[in-house]
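pasting for ref
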Amino acid sequence: MPQIIDKAQENDVPQWKLNRMQVQQDPFYKSFYSKFYIEKDGVISLSLKDLTIICNMILTGALLGMLFTSCQTGLYVCEYGSFPYISQIIKEPIYVRIYIFLTTIYMFGVHQLNIRAFHKKLHGVISKFHNDMIMHLGLISTVTLPLIGLFDMDLFPASHGIFALYFFLTFGGYCIMLSSALSTNIDKFPDSDHFGIIIIKYASYGLFVTIITYLVAFSYIPVGPTAYIEWFMVLYLVNIFTIASFTNQYYDSVHDPAVA
């Protein structure tokens, strides 16, 4: 928001701050990325919603692109009964590098921001122990997703399976506990949040059914539909915060001393 600089203010504000404020008011310095943040009263607020949606689209597109390329080049036979698991796709030398790179950026740059945002939203609504337990599960999932690619299924099959299981259970558990905490305390949130909380609630139900279906299918039907379910489950988990982000206006804020 442009600031009006009067003579009285000039006497109290250092020159470097006045120079900075004048530059910020110049339309020439308006950036394409300005729509991703709000600057007001010394606080720069970065839109977590936009950041989440964009990064989820990139990660989802990369995973589907790996699958499409692998099928088109004949690296894997992509038909019912022999459809490749996602673990088979990401073990390829070039794909594993892309996977580790993108998931590390996403998990530590976006995923954990959403976890901290919901922790703040539940602060004072549920007990500290309950809130911290939800956050602990989310933070464990932040570490495990990149490790799935780092320990591939050929060289480190046991570690790969353990980290995959940890991710599915910890983040799945996080989503279910989060939706339960929000929905059971819906009366403690403003009316504008109610629709979003209901969306998160039903999204967690779908996630729970998907995880159980996958575990049962993997145990008893290792071929056929299981690989399809795994792809759906992974993309569901990766994009769960996209579903949630459409119903919130969370921001990650930093202090700007130039306009304090």
